[in-house]
Structures are given as structure tokens and as C-alpha cells.
Amino acid sequence: MTGKTILLVIGGGIAAFKTLDLIRRLRERGHRVVPVLTKAATEFVTPLSVSALAGEKVYQDLFDLNDEAEMGHIELSRAADLVVVAPATADLMAKMANGHANDLASTMLMATDKRVLIAPSMNVRMWEHAATQRNLATLTKDGILTSGPNEGDMACGEFGFGRMAEPMEILAAAESALNDGPLKGRHVLVTSGPTHEPIDPVRYIANRSSGAQGAAIAQALLAQGAKVTFVSGPADVAAPMGVDLVPVQTAAEMLDAVNAVKDVDVGIFAAAVADWRVASASDQKIKKDGNGLPVLDFAENPDILATVCASKSRPKLVIGFAAETQNVVENATAKRKRKGCDWIVANDVSPETGIMGGAENDVVLISANGAEDWPRMGKGQVAERLAMKIAEELGG
Ligand code: C5P
Questions:
Q1: Does the CB atom of residue 343 touch ligand 1 within 6 A?
Q2: Looking at the predicted structure, is the pLDDT value of residue 71 above 80?
Q3: 241-281, pLDDT tens digit by residue?
């Protein structure tokens, strides 16, 4: 997607320095960025650096007669395709929620007829304050979109929610708001969650996959404009709004569901599929009848990923996952070859990593070009980065 105009309102917060990177990333994607600085923002970034990065004049003062003659604040707010507010401070959010219009930024936010995306950024207590949460609810009701905030260390030394979303996340949210992401027109199949393999009607064999990474990937792909078919086992995390959800229980059902999906450009196999099922699951509850312990016979489940890779209708790009507890890169590299997929997202799921069922992931991306080590980050960020990489690969 190129050639969109984004009116970027920069609020007065320490995260304004990250907005400089956002400007660069928006421009790399071919967008025009028209910056507006609040008075407080100029305490954190200079109009000169913003103007140099944007390659545009910076708008600052509501009552600048020259600016008004050139392009008035109403016109400025309408000329954009999208308005992005980053960082959106507690004060800016309060102004927006209450309809204040006492400087150029707030006046334009009132005057615009375009969608508005805010990237909140503030101290964790300020974020959690009832007033901010009330304002957020009002803004959400008004149709304002949000990206972040994320949880993490803060400039003030505290820890919690309030860190501005990363520039790549804001970029993805902005492109999604423009409803025209780089994966527009692409169909992506994602498998996610564990599978449940029945022993009898009330018991089953399962694993600890929460489905969080798969759901985050589906969400990131939607944000990039893709159509997503989400084949999910019984996960803890709900499927994101907007996917075509196909709920399944067992590996066999998952394979059938995957085979039934047509015209797939990219297949992402994030499900933790059980390797074995009980060969002859009982159709009655197995009783403790005093005749000794029950014996379970196992049969091997179909390998869905390998089956898809070997099929005539193999998607152009197939991505597998490898959850390992030792020799991650070696095992995942061998697995990529064995299964015939293009990329493997490998991670160490040893209990001490806290990855399985946790909020973060620490992955290595294995491709024909070797192993790419990603820093530990939130599962949402892993998903954003993967979605961006897919878009690049497909030439989006
Ligand atoms: O062999 P392993 O389970 O480690 O392989 C992991 C990858 O293969 C994941 O992408 C997983 O979704 C996929 N897989 C599958 N069907 C299976 C087992 C694994 O699609 N039966």
C-alpha cells in the first residue's frame, strides 16, 4: 500500500522519540506523513528533527496566520486518509474524550472526518487511573482505534502497562485502519491450539498449548489485510474477531478441516498437534472394575504440516513451528527439511522459559537462508514481525 497521507499528532510524552522511528517506517511504506506537534511535544522532540524525517512542514500553532492562509486546520484534518496520535498522553486522551479544542492538535482531532488511531503512552498508574480508563471507554465508543499500550519497563522506572506500542505495531494498526494492508487479497490458513485425543467419552489426552501465539498471528495477519481461516483445537485463548473459525477437537478432524480449505496462499501451522491418539478409544466410560489397570494402545496421528507440504495444492509459503526442549536450532533445521516447509518458527518450551502458556516468546526463524534469532518479545510482537516478514516474502 502506498501513497496514503497520515496526519500524525505527536503528544508531549517521553515516547515521542519512538514516533521519530514511526515516521521513518511510515515513509518506508510509501506514506506521506504530515506532522502536528502539541506544545508539550516540543519539549521531547524538536520540530526540526520531525520535519527533517517527515520531509514536510511541521504544524504547531492554531493561530498561525500564515498557516491558516496556506492550509487551514479544517482542511489539514480532512486532507489526511488517517489521523494517528502517538504518543497519546493521558491529557490528550482526556481532551479528545471531552471534545476540547484549545490548540491545533485537539482542534484538528475534533474537525477531522477521518478515522483516528491513538497509541497511548503514560505511567502505569496514570493508565490504570479510573479517569483514563473512563476516557478510553468513551474514545472506544466514539470509534477511535487504539494500538497498545504494552506492558514493560517505563522511563520513570516503574513496570506495567503504559509503554507506547512499538512503531511496527502502530504501523500495522494504521495500515489495518486504512483497510488496505500489504496482505490484502491473500488467504492465510492458521492452525492453532492443542488437540484433544479421546480415551473415552469423558477423558482425553492433551497438551499445554494455550493457542495464544496462533491467535496473535491470526490477529496480526488480519491487521495486514489478509483473509484468515483459523482452524483451532480447544484453546484457552479466544479466536480473534474477523477470522473464519473452524473449531476442531482431534488431529484427524484438524487434518480434514485443513484439507477442506481451498486457495490458500500461506499456511501457518502453529497448532500443537498430538503425535499419538488412543487407537481404539472406548465409546463408554472406562470403569474401575477391579480387573486391573486399563491398557491404552496408541496410533500415530497424521502429520498435518507434512501432508500439506507434500500435497498438490501446497500453498506458496508454508510455515511450521517447532516446540523443542533441547538443541532448538539443530532439531528445527532438521524438521524443516523433513516436513518440507519453507520456514520453521522454533522455540524452547522447557518449563523454566515460561513460554508455553505465557505472554512472551523467544524464537528462532529457520529458513533456507539459515537461522535468524529474534529477541525475546511479546507473542503479539512475534506475530507482527512474522506477518511483516510474510508480506515482504510475498512482495506486498
Ligand atoms: O513434529 P513436531 O510436532 O515437532 O512438528 C511441529 C510442527 O508440525 C508444527 O508446525 C505443528 O503444527 C505441525 N504438526 C502437524 N501435525 C502433526 C504434528 C505436528 O501439523 N501431527
A1: no
A2: no
A3: 668 899 999 999 999 999 999 999 999 999 999 999 999 99
Q: State the pairing for strand pair 298-300/276-278.
A: antiparallel
Q: Is the pLDDT of residue 396 over 60?
A: no
Per-residue confidence band for 184, with pLDDT thresholds at 50, 70 and 90: confident
- Show the DSSP H helices in the chain as ranges: 16-28, 47-54, 65-70, 73-79, 90-98, 104-111, 124-128, 130-141, 167-177, 212-223, 251-260, 304-310, 328-339, 379-393
Q: Is 177 exposed, middle or buried (0-12, 13-18, 19+ CB in 10 A)?
A: buried
In this prediction, residue 175 carries a pLDDT of 83
For residue 263, the 8-state DSSP code is S
User: Ligand 1 pocket, 303 CB below 6 A?
Assistant: yes
Question: What pLDDT does 46 receive?
Answer: 96
Q: Is 363 exposed, middle or buried (0-12, 13-18, 19+ CB in 10 A)?
A: buried
In whole angstroms, how large is the CA radius of gyration of the chain? 24
What was the pLDDT predicted at 97? 97
The dihedral over CA atoms of 76, 79, 83, 85, expressed in degrees to the nearest 10, equals -30
State if residue 267 touches ligand 1 by the CB under 6 angstroms criterion: no
Residues in the chain, how many?
A: 396
Mutual angle of helices 90-98 and 104-111, in 10-degree steps: 40
Distance 185 CA to ligand 1 centre (A): 27
Higher pLDDT among residues 120 and 360, named by residue? 120
Amino acid symbol at 207: N
Assessment of whether the complete model's pTM goes beyond 0.90: no
Which residue numbers are catalytic? Answer: 156
**Is residue 297 packed enough to be buried (19+ CB in 10 Å), middle (13-18) or exposed (0-12)?**
exposed
Q: Which of 250, 258, 305, 331 to mutate to test the pocket of ligand 1 (most atoms within 8 A of CB)?
A: 305
**Contact (CB, 8 A) for 74 and 111:** yes
Lowest average pLDDT, out of 20-29, 81-90, 240-249, goes to 240-249
Residue 11: DSSP 8-state: P
